[in-house]
Amino acid sequence: MSYIQYLKNQGRDPNLATLSLYLRLCGQRVVDCGEERVLELYHQLLRKVKVLDANLSESVILALTSTSQWKLALKHLTNIRRMCNINAKVYSAIVTAAFRNGDYNTGWHYLETMCQEEKIPGDSAFLEWVTQCEKAEDVEEKQSMMETLLDKLIHYEIFPKVPVIESIANLFSKGLGWSYLYVKIPKSGRCPACNQQLHQLDISEAEFKELQSEYVPRVLHGSDIFRSSSPEEWHKFQEFLEERGPFSVVVDGLNASYLAGKKPLRQRSVMLKQVVEKLCSRARNGRVLVIGRKHMRKWSEVDFNAVKKMADIYTLDNLTKDDGFFIYAALQSGQGTKIVSSDMLRDHLYRLGDGPLRETFRRWQRQHQVLAVPSVAGVQLIEPASFSTTAQNQGTTDWHIPYDDGSPRASYQLPKTWLCTQANPHSSSRDTHSVIWESTVQSVPFTEADNEKSLVGPSLPSITVL
Ligand SMILES: [Zn+2]
């Protein structure tokens, strides 16, 4: 800032880059700089340039959103959108400003927009919402506002970070008078603090039938599959399933082979063979279907034949996007059929739209997706959790909210850390022998890079699970 003063003393105007940076800094420290200074710089910048580029627009948005004139930022948002993607930092600044200024509809609108674009809202947006909850007049309103936030966490499968979960815990405790503990939920899905069983991921017969019948028109017709594969291929595949099905496990062959990373092609076929071996050794009477591509046959005839002995293989044309085919095969095989893939299938979820079908698909996926991950011994299969891993309540007096404690985890791993909060004191029902509950959060520090990550991790995991 003294550099700007220096330029002023010299009677010189700062150049655009300097002005842009200065504006950004003033926005971050509006308490020191004062709102008038930020707005004055903003107008100075507008006088200098007619059309702001993406970088200048970003500086302007980050600065304006710290002032009462935050709505001026919205037109610059439209401007950036014309040039490039809007990043999470910019979206979060808008959401935070909207919440702070009481324009909740606009705030939620942009929060939903960014989530649909698979960008994670920054902590500031959630923290500001909790501050708004605290300001609410009565307890019912506080609770209802908090539930609005929890609904979004559920819908977009967001795991709040430590500062956010602490502020949520604080609101439940000070605002609503509830009791809370931080817990690690074991595989059984039973909370060690209150002994409650987390929701099972059951899907009713009717829901499954709807998923079976709606998957093709909603997901496959809207995807590349029907553009890149011929109708004959689709019919041939359906005939194959009728003849050879049902299967107990369907493997996305190409995805499983990619676990080998950039190693030679031979390694890819070894990886696929290991996945199928593991599946067969675990369920001796199970019927495994591997969906692959024609070119995979060339990788290694020996391995390919070995897989063929253990499983049915269906190879699609090389150009076919086979992710839809393997899900279709699993759905047609019935409720119990599992899928093996490390893809999070987010594009499928989005193609299902915003209704209950998407929720059903997510539950089905969580219940049936076996993850294959590389390990020291070659490959490891991770069975799906038996309980729902999003925030949940069983009545109006309890919530279990999963949060991200900052421990390193791959994109396919879910955090094990939860906040257990309830209207009644915990002490009466707590399992006193358990050591996996705490009254303070145990956090692992986040790095800057974590904040920039998008919702979608790498589709092929690179972390080795021991
Ligand atoms: Zn609990």
UniProtKB/TrEMBL annotation:
Q: PRORP domain location, by residue?
A: 186-420
Q: What is its EC number?
A: 3.1.26.5
Q: Which cofactor does it need?
A: Mg(2+)
Designated name of the protein: Mitochondrial ribonuclease P catalytic subunit
For the keyword GTP-binding, the answer is no
Identify the keywords attached in UniProt to this record, alphabetized. Answer: Hydrolase, Magnesium, Metal-binding, Mitochondrion, Nuclease, Transit peptide, tRNA processing, Zinc
State the InterPro entries in the record.
Answer: MRPP3_PIN_dom (IPR033495), PRORP_C (IPR031595), TPR-like_helical_dom_sf (IPR011990)
Report the Pfam families cross-referenced here. Answer: PRORP
EC class of the enzyme, as a word:
hydrolase
Query: Localized where?
Result: Mitochondrion
Q: Provide the GO MF annotations for this entry.
A: metal ion binding; ribonuclease P activity
> Which biological processes are named by the entry's GO terms?
mitochondrial tRNA 5'-end processing; tRNA 5'-leader removal
Into which family does the record put it?
A: Belongs to the PPR family. P subfamily.
Its main localization is: mitochondrion
Output the Gene Ontology cellular-component terms. mitochondrial ribonuclease P complex
Catalytic activity field = Endonucleolytic cleavage of RNA, removing 5'-extranucleotides from tRNA precursor
Species this chain originates from: Penaeus vannamei
